[in-house]
Amino acid sequence: MKAVTWRGVNEIGVEDVPEPTIINDHDIILEVGLTATCGSDLHLMGGYIPAMRAGDVLGHEFMGTVAEVGRGVTKHQVGDRVVVVSFTSCGQCWYCRQGLWSLCDNGNPNPGITEALWGQAIGGCYGYSHALGGWAGSHARYIRVPYADQGAFPIPDGVSDERALFASDAAPTGWTGAHQAEVRPGDVVAVWGAGGVGQMAARAAMLMGAERVVVIDRYDNRLAQVRTHIGAETLDYEKVDVPAELRELTGGRGPDVCIEAVGMEAHSPGPLYLYDQVKQQMRLQTDRPTAVREAIYACRKGGTVFTLGVFAGVVDKFPLGAVMNKALTLRGAQQHGHRYIPEILDRMSRDEVKTEHLATHVMSLNDGPKGYRMFKNKEDGCVRAVFRPGA
Amino acid sequence: MTSFVGTVASLAARAGGSAVRQVRSVVDPSAARPAGASQPASGWLVVTVLREQSDIDTARLPAPLADFGGRIEVRVRPAADGKGTELAVRLRDRRSSGGVLSRLGGRDPQAELRSALRRAKQLIEVGEVLAVDPAPHGKRTATPGGMLLEAWTKVAPKAGVR
């Protein structure tokens, strides 16, 4: 079957790969209907997460139709239309039972790698390097889904494929950030990053009762999407001083909750960006934490900063003094989507969560390299390139 | 070929271990201590399984641990705050626990036991051991980085910091 693969740093290919088969009893084989590029893929593409091998199939945000069912699967049948959460989690360990699904003890078959890096292994993720399990990704006609009773969710009849697709990763990641940051009614919430995850974090915060939600980015089309489709306010960080604007907006206090949805390749207009670039290229730090620093600086005393963008290793010039002296709560997570996807699909069916606008460019798998190039360079206003394997 | 793979695996472990050690020493100065310092002296390897202690019969352990027979000691006790049961195992003959690099490379004397303990936890909690291979992939280009990663991936189920 055809698949979009990682061939090397900044090199994406389209190759023929073997079709997956059922290996564990709790597997299903899914015929992929739609599969999206994600901002976190760019970290793999750029070699910032050095655990990819040439030929690895990319993609972790997807939906489709059940094509084959393992004998231990009880909730799904051939022909079911489902969306699949990007993390592989068993549903039986203590972490899964606490709702902390991305921390699953059993979902990563290569635990030694992340245990060495982070002290503990977390769950696995499709198409996201051998550090997170070595699972084949979704940019292919078929994908194997382990722990399918836990990770695949039936799509309500009234929800389109294009909307349900983003219930796989972008929306539940946004929900994870807003919920785990404990957004409360009346809060002012600032979100750094107006990509798919940032938009969904903003929407989640609004639905959790936040009084004002402000999204920060520099791309006009993305900020316009936030205002039009999400209903939040926006700031262009290339035109205004973000902490100053946020102070004015909040009566001098700063936002109650700051959600960083940018990750390890953050950009900024200031001189610190050049400093971070140089240090990252020299491998003196693995990640650029520009937006995290600003979020910590901007957050109100006693507020919460949540790192939702993907980070892999160590950062420099981390403002620990502000964290300590302002009594901030600093949290982070990959997505615990299993606990949020049923609610998200329900809200999608009631038009409370709309995501179709994120899929700005839909194309076939043959256009994989083009899709990733457009997505990376934000060409033609690309917010997400989405592949339709059956096309 | 086998010795070549072994050499690559060893290099991967050394390179990976060195890199990780460097990174961890930046984050945590205690990681810069001599290799082996972070290993408990007792030699116990421990996981917590989400089961009552009464559900774990040490005389009828899952196959990966049962296969060790009398070569291992087994200890169970309740985990704090309802987190399940701590299942601990260690080799009776533990002349050396291995250094941190050998643990990260899955080459220490307890590597097989570490892997068996992880598989036993999965069997108790989920009922099966999760397998990733064979995962579909495209052409593997032979690069030094790819070979190192492949080697580390092969030992990753046995490797760890504990």
TrEMBL record, chain A:
<dbReference type="InterPro" id="IPR011032">
    <property type="entry name" value="GroES-like_sf"/>
</dbReference>
<dbReference type="InterPro" id="IPR002328">
    <property type="entry name" value="ADH_Zn_CS"/>
</dbReference>
<comment type="similarity">
    <text>Belongs to the zinc-containing alcohol dehydrogenase family.</text>
</comment>
<keyword id="KW-0862">Zinc</keyword>
<keyword id="KW-0479">Metal-binding</keyword>
<dbReference type="InterPro" id="IPR013154">
    <property type="entry name" value="ADH-like_N"/>
</dbReference>
<dbReference type="GO" id="GO:0016491">
    <property type="term" value="F:oxidoreductase activity"/>
</dbReference>
<dbReference type="InterPro" id="IPR013149">
    <property type="entry name" value="ADH-like_C"/>
</dbReference>
<protein>
    <submittedName>
        <fullName>Glutathione-dependent formaldehyde dehydrogenase</fullName>
    </submittedName>
</protein>
<feature type="domain" description="Alcohol dehydrogenase-like N-terminal">
    <location>
        <begin position="25"/>
        <end position="157"/>
    </location>
</feature>
<dbReference type="Pfam" id="PF00107">
    <property type="entry name" value="ADH_zinc_N"/>
</dbReference>
<keyword id="KW-0560">Oxidoreductase</keyword>
<dbReference type="Pfam" id="PF08240">
    <property type="entry name" value="ADH_N"/>
</dbReference>
<feature type="domain" description="Alcohol dehydrogenase-like C-terminal">
    <location>
        <begin position="196"/>
        <end position="265"/>
    </location>
</feature>
<dbReference type="GO" id="GO:0008270">
    <property type="term" value="F:zinc ion binding"/>
</dbReference>
<dbReference type="InterPro" id="IPR036291">
    <property type="entry name" value="NAD(P)-bd_dom_sf"/>
</dbReference>
UniProtKB/TrEMBL annotation, chain B:
<dbReference type="InterPro" id="IPR023393">
    <property type="entry name" value="START-like_dom_sf"/>
</dbReference>
<protein>
    <submittedName>
        <fullName>Uncharacterized protein</fullName>
    </submittedName>
</protein>
